[in-house]
Amino acid sequence: MGARRFGRVNWLGLYTLALREIARFMSVWQQTVFAPLMTAGLFVTVFTVALGRGDREVMGLPYLAFLGPGILMMSVIQNAFANTSSSMISSKMQGNIIDTLMPPLSPGEILTGYLIGAVARAGLVAVSIGAGMALLLGQLPQNPLWAVLFVLLAAVLMGGLGLVGGIIAQKFDQMAVITNFIVTPLSFLSGTFYSIQALPPVFYAISHINPIFYLIDGARFGFTGVSDADPVLGLAVSAGCAAAVCALAWALLRSGYRLKP
């Protein structure tokens, strides 16, 4: 993992790795930034036509106002996860992961570099969708700081989870299983398109053990001032999950698990 340093940070190496991760997704910005904006627009259109016609309200909000933050956060979650997972698994499959492991970068610096890329991509997606919500729906965050905090936590949590998945997976098929059977169901079954208050008691309770629920609910509070759960609790759960996932990613990087030839 490179030379050990005590009380020092390899700023140049960290900057280079972070710049590489940002340049990687910006080189195909049509797929990584523009495509999520189009997907969000399609979701809004389809669900508005199917469920949001007339004076339909959810939690006292017009359906579009309720739906917008959920769509934004779902896009943030999926793109943060995709950025780190695709970068790691691609490096392993192509055999150039050694270019990341050989420089004098500590596990924490490697983790931070990957997370900066995930946060940058998720942030661009959030800004583009948020701008669309402001222009088309006139929807601005009522509590901007809360909205930014939950977007940042979502990017860090899912970026860390994507890195863990990319390290554990040994081929693209295994990465697809993690995406399709873990990340996507958790994203869709988290109150993105509905209020969990409408669920039967059993599913209502189950929803509260889904960390993505707290991310989406917290962002909805940031945009609308309305939430299913206490936003302070959501912030604590989200921060705790992000810290745990990042700690696991750091441990895997430190051990070299499935990274070293």
From TrEMBL:
Gene Ontology CC = ATP-binding cassette (ABC) transporter complex
- Is RNA-binding found in the keyword set? no
User: What are the alphabetically sorted keywords of the record?
Assistant: Cell membrane, Membrane, Transmembrane, Transmembrane helix, Transport
Localization per Swiss-Prot or TrEMBL:
Cell inner membrane; Membrane
Annotated membrane-spanning segments are 33-51, 63-81, 111-138, 145-169, 175-195, 233-253
One MF annotation (Gene Ontology) recorded for this entry: ABC-type transporter activity
Q: Which topology term describes how it sits in the membrane?
A: Multi-pass membrane protein
Q: List, for all copies, the residue spans of the domain called ABC transmembrane type-2.
A: 27-256
Q: Which Pfam families match?
A: ABC2_membrane
Q: Which PANTHER family match?
A: INNER MEMBRANE TRANSPORT PERMEASE YADH, INNER MEMBRANE TRANSPORT PERMEASE YADH-RELATED
Q: Which family does it belong to?
A: Belongs to the ABC-2 integral membrane protein family.
The identity of this protein, by name, is Transport permease protein
Please name the source species: Paracoccus jeotgali
